[in-house]
Design goal:
The protein is α/β, with parallel strands linked by helices. The protein has two domains: about 240 residues, Alkaline Phosphatase, subunit A (3-Layer(aba) Sandwich); about 100 residues, Gyrase A, domain 2 (2-Layer Sandwich). Helices cover about 30% and strands about 25% of the residues. The strands form five sheets. It has a seven-stranded mixed β-sheet with strand order 2-17-8-1-7-5-6, sandwiched between helices. Strands 11-12-14-13 form a four-stranded antiparallel β-sheet. α8 links the parallel β5 and β6. α9 runs parallel beside α11 and α10 runs antiparallel to α11. The radius of gyration is 20 Å and the shape is globular. The two termini are about 15 Å apart.
Length: about 350
């Protein structure tokens, strides 16, 4: 989507068939999946009154993967962002690709694909990130928006104001407006909670006002990075005994898609057989070869050191944990994502004036 917005500002044909515009804004609302938005119709009346196209994020349905693909237009296997938490067999490092970078340079080096922000500089088009101040000097920002101008505001309302002022300059620019608050609320309380629905209602009103003030030669796209599924305490599966820590290098991924790195890869088949008996049809048990054959990844041969021995992907409405590796706070989460279900992969695409 970001590439299409950039090409629209350049006046070039693009994959989304966006009309040529002097400036474009992409509002990315973290965790507001296509079905999450539809379910909140009573609280997001303006957005749901528009024509909502169904788009899809890549697997795994998680922020670090989606934002990097959004910024480059490349699949996760090309960017190396194949999950939320991964393991590097060469360095022996556990890597949190969302927020665990030691510095910006290491993230910039790890992500090898050119970004839209870098391509835009060559074409004299400004790319502006409008986001919470927390993300200004992070590794993920360095990996995804290395050549962008960063504008921070901690309130959602202030971010919309900044984006509008940037569009009003009349310059050729692409504005990336990021809202993370709904996803944070979804994790802690769920997408059925009153607080999450109140957040959707606030967002809906801000988007309506933004569209009313949108400059004539500017366009707006509203989208997301993934959907969210609520899971009860009774639907959580713990793998502490099924995957003994002493035989693991690491168990990473997300709570809807675990990535299993074994001390001895030769035991992969045995583990898959045992887990299949224990889990039944609750989860998919797949290797990298199977995910590539199914089209979720292209070749993973470039970085074999970060590829797990197998994935455990939620099929039913369950969340997956290994308590030796999970963040303690995450054990209480209600909202989850990271699998291949329609509700997690489907994201909205709403166009205004483009």
């Amino acid at each position: 989507m970001l590439i299409s917005a950039f090409e629209s500002v350049e006046g070039r044909p693009n994959k989304l068939d966006l009309a040529p515009r002097q400036s474009m804004c992409i509002l990315l609302v973290d965790g507001l999946g296509y079905y999450n938005l539809a379910d909140a119709a009573g609280h997001a009346r303006f957005l749901n009154s528009q024509q909502i196209e169904k788009s899809y994020c890549y697997f795994p349905a998680t922020t670090s993967t989606s934002l990097t693909s959004f910024a480059t237009g490349k699949k996760p296997n090309a960017t190396g962002f194949i999950g939320y938490n991964i393991f590097n067999r060469i360095t022996g490092q556990r890597m949190n690709l969302l927020s665990g970078w030691e510095d910006q340079e290491s993230a910039f080096t790890f992500q090898r694909q050119p970004t839209v922000s870098e391509l835009a500089v060559e074409s004299h088009v400004s790319v502006d990130v409008v986001s919470h101040s927390t993300y200004e000097n992070t590794g993920l920002t360095a990996a995804t928006m290395p050549a962008a101008n960063f504008h921070s505001a901690d309130s959602i309302e202030a971010r919309f104001d900044i984006a509008l002022k940037l569009l009003a300059t009349g310059d050729k620019r692409v504005v990336y407006l990021y809202i993370q608050e709904l996803d944070q609320t979804a994790h802690g309380l769920g997408v059925s909670s009153n607080r999450w629905l109140e957040g959707v209602e606030l967002l809906d009103g801000l988007v309506r006002d933004f569209v009313e003030r949108l400059p004539k030669n500017s366009g707006l796209i509203v989208t997301s990075d993934h959907g969210v599924i609520d899971v009860t305490e009774y639907e959580k599966i713990y793998f502490d005994e099924l995957l003994p820590a002493e035989e693991m290098l690491f168990v990473g991924g997300d709570t809807r898609g675990l990535m299993v790195y074994l001390q001895d890869p030769g035991k992969t088949t045995a583990y898959l057989r045992e887990l299949a008996q224990e889990l039944g049809d609750l989860c998919y048990l797949v290797t990298a070869e199977q995910l590539m054959a199914a089209g979720y990844f292209e070749s993973l041969d470039d970085r074999p050191e970060i590829v797990p021995d197998f994935w455990i992907i939620a099929k039913k409405n369950v969340a997956l944990y290994h308590r030796a590796y999970a963040r303690p706070k995450s054990l209480f989460n209600v909202g989850h994502h990271g699998a291949i279900s329609e509700r997690e992969l489907a994201i909205p695409l709403i166009r205004f004036n483009c």
